[in-house]
Amino acid sequence: MRFDGLDEDTEKLHEVLDSVGDIPQTQSKLNMEEFLLEQGVAPRVIGLADAGFANTAGTGKMANQSLARCIDADKSWEEDGEGDFRIKGGFGKIVEMLKGQFKGSIYLDW
Known about the structure:
mainly alpha
């Protein structure tokens, strides 16, 4: 294996994580760790998923991350054509939602 290549287990992890948005909600009762293992991801790379995916999602562990939430979240992103993703409608959508929930607590342009 080349120094800049991924081993088979890591490739499988990335493949399964990339497919989350295509998963039917019928499997949504699983947590992400259960889902990954069910999909044939090697237990030895779950720590890599914890460090990258789960930490970014704010849960710290794939076992604490809901598959249903990941399916929903995946549908909220759009690709910009250069491999980056952004929230559909932009971050202003989030600011407006928070502003509505925290009336009088968020000040813009002060």
